[in-house]
Amino acid sequence: MSAEKTYVEDVDRSFYDFRFEDRDNYRVSSGLTEEIIRQISKEKHDPDWMLEFRLQSLKVFEQMPMTTWGPSIKGLDLQNIVTYVRPNTERMHAKWEEVPENIKETFERLGIPQSERESLAGVGAQYDSELVYHNVRKEVADLGVVYTDIESALRGEYADMIRERFMKLVPPTDHKFAALHGAVWSGGSFVYVPPGVTVEIPLQSYFRLNAPGAGQFEHTLIIVDKGANLHFIEGCSAPKYNVANLHAGCVELYVGENATLRYSTIENWSKNMYNLNTKRARVEKGGKVEWVSGSFGSHVSYLYPMSILKGEGARCEFTGVTFAGAGQNLDTGCKIVHDAPKTTSYVNTRSISKSGGISTFRSAVVVTAKAENSKSSVSCESLMLDDESRSDTIPVMDVRTNQADIGHEAKIGRISDEAIFYLMSRGLSEEDARALIVSGFAENVSKELPLEYAVEMNNLIRIEMKGAIG
Amino acid sequence: MEKIINEPIAGTFGWLHVGGTKVTLPDEIKEQEIALAKGETKTVFLEDDGSLLSIKAKLPENAKLHLILLRRSEAAKSCFTDVRVRLEDGAEFTWHRFILGGKETYDNVSVELAGKGSRFAADLGYDLKDEEKADVNCEAIHLGKKSESRIRSFGVLAKKAGKLLRGTIDFRRGCAGSIGNETEDVLLLDDTVHNQSVPMILCTEEDVVGNHGATIGRPEERLLYYMASRGIDETQALELLSRAKLEAVLHQIPEEDIQQTIREAKGWT
């Protein structure tokens, strides 16, 4: 077999790497002080309890140590991060034509309005720290589905519902960046799907961070009530700057009895981004959460969506792909807690590392004594495309009952010579054979995404295979 | 002396408490250096007695060391062993560990496969009950080309027994052509047991193959049903299944007298 290697291109980011002159309307000073928190709270017209919550979170943040086990975040100096940047628009718009021209052009170039017209039930678009556009189809709203920005919801008829749940799944004490989020959060979406309602086509939120040296801290809170069904899609991108940007969003998902929520993420932050995002779902009896996660961007990522299976028969599926190229250290995976009888989880992930990129799959499957007759299956595969890169698999299984069946398998390796030989014996060139294998490796995620709207994923999964080089 | 031991090469989520373990080490330390000549083969069989047993070995070309460690069920003291081995070209190290019980067992095995074609095989067998605990850290660090490691673990947990196994296969840059496999099979007999498994594969070399597989859970119902249909009641069936876990490791030992010693320690005839 030839010793030549196929060169696999980095994900082509030029599509996302455009920027507009910084013309934001208002921004706080960089760093983190009580004064800054009070300014953010005032700008956002927070209710009193929220200001208190922010200040408490700041205290937690100041006392909490950094984690020691993940990728280095030494390049991130919070004193240089601007935590709130209001874009050049005074309010959120429900009509696309009313969105300011440069912001509109950004989202036009990312294909968001086109997707909305063609295949989405509703769209929210966040630019820096604020949502600038939010709309939901009339037929979906008529079903009682609420899809709005979280700030409006905090002051409206759903205020109590939000107060009851806001940062209850991910408390500020969870980790240092959860505390930071609690202090400076801004923007994000609130979704409520009433009992028995199925939203036939997905809702999408798109997060764009345009300002250099800024942080984005959006909060997404989704409640899918009993027997309801929703697919929510989250997309993220940013232009590349030579200063560090920070994303420390928070996603809290409440999946009711016999409800289903699919939460898909295509993350393509620029390679100066520290993506320290926290996502968590609580699933009640008979409910199901499905995570579909594609991680392609960021300089450093810490991303482990967590599913807490609280009700009997609750289920979780996690499907993920991570592609780490030059200068990237992507630490991704998932956490699952089986805390009720007959709960099941299924995890299937792929990692690809190239050009010195570091990809780590990290997981935790915890089965408590209450989770009799539960089952879990974890499968993770890693592909190394050169010998400059790194790929680690760090799973943990913690089982506290004998009434459970837990399986785990992990594989790491390069493109198999046997597979190439087989494909070549069927008439493919070596180059085509390698290309086919690499494309197929990431298929677990691409096949889970709805084809008709996948504007962003289509650009990301375009892994180009070029001629063999030495 | 208070110390954190059994720290794996890579850390993970703090709330799982699977990083190092804080312990009070005994005052008495028994140190043993095992020296072998090139091509020499040696088998060492040891029983731990509650002290801190530290074993170091550097195996030159084509030397073969087989280390068998037994922890008896009646052992009352906590036991600590720390095994560090470096393998040169073609050298082989086999570690067989039997934990038949005892209050607390802490094992660290760290093997550097430095030489081309060096090999490391680890087989852990345990049968824990009541409040017995085992905390094991096993590392295969691949440095040499075409080196091979295999970490296997078979065990049974009953009542309030607990086990934490961190098994790491670490492929370092330059170990091209290396293979590492890890398998774990844990039988859980009661709903008060606590099993923690941390099977890591770390990799900075492209041309390697690493695999891990684990099955953790109760006895298969269809197996119990089959045994019942052959007149074997559930208690006997569970005993048979438990014995099978240890026998899977015992059969790997060529020396029949050592096999017999371990069977006798277990009360098997």
Relevant terms:
heterodimer, A: 470 residues, alpha/beta, 13-stranded mixed β-sheet, 10-stranded mixed β-sheet, 21% helix, 35% strand, disordered C terminus, B: 269 residues, mainly beta, 7-stranded parallel β-sheet
Concise summary:
By secondary structure, chain A is of the alpha/beta class. Chain A has helices at residues 34-43, 48-63, 101-109, 112-119, 138-141, 150-155, 159-165, 176-184, 417-425, 430-441, 443-446, 455-460; strands at residues 26-27, 85-86, 122-127, 130-136, 146-149, 189-193, 203-208, 215-216, 219-224, 229-237, 245-247, 250-255, 260-268, 273-276, 278-283, 288-295, 300-303, 306-309, 315-324, 329-338, 344-353, 358-367, 374-384, 390-399, 404-413. Chain A has one domain.
Order of helices and strands of chain B: EEEEEEEEEEEEEEEEHHH
Give the spatial strand order of the biggest sheet of chain B: 3-5-7-9-11-13-15
Mean pLDDT, all residues of chain A: 84
Number of discrete helical segments of chain B = 3
Characterize the largest beta sheet of chain B: strand count, sense, and whether it forms a barrel. 7 strands, parallel
The average pLDDT score of chain B comes to 94
Count of runs of 4 or more consecutive helical residues of chain A: 12
Could you name the ranges of chain B where pLDDT drops below 50 across 5 or more consecutive residues? none
Oligomer: heterodimer
Could you tell me how far the N terminus lies from the C terminus of chain A, measured between alpha carbons in angstroms?
Answer: 13 Å
Q: Could you tell me the strand content of chain A as a percent range?
A: 25-35%
Written account of the structure:
The complex is a heterodimer of chains A (470) and B (269). With 470 residues, chain A is of the alpha/beta class. Chain A has one domain. In chain A, 21% of the residues lie in helices and 35% in strands. In chain A, the strands form 3 sheets. In chain A, strands 5, 6, 8, 9, 11, 12, 14, 15, 17, 18, 20, 22 and 24 form a 13-stranded mixed β-sheet that branches. In chain A, strands 4-3-7-10-13-16-19-21-23-25 form a 10-stranded mixed β-sheet. The longest helix of chain A is centred in the first third of the chain and has 16 residues. Chain B has 269 residues and is mostly beta strands. Chain B has one domain. Chain B has a 7-stranded parallel β-sheet with strand order 3-5-7-9-11-13-15, with no helix packed on it. Chain B is globular, with a radius of gyration of 18 Å. The relative contact order of chain B is 0.13. The model of chain B has no long low-confidence stretch (mean pLDDT 94). Classes of the chains: A alpha/beta (470), B mainly beta (269). The interface between A and B is large, with 41 and 44 residues. β25 of chain A pairs antiparallel with β16 of chain B, so a sheet runs across the interface.
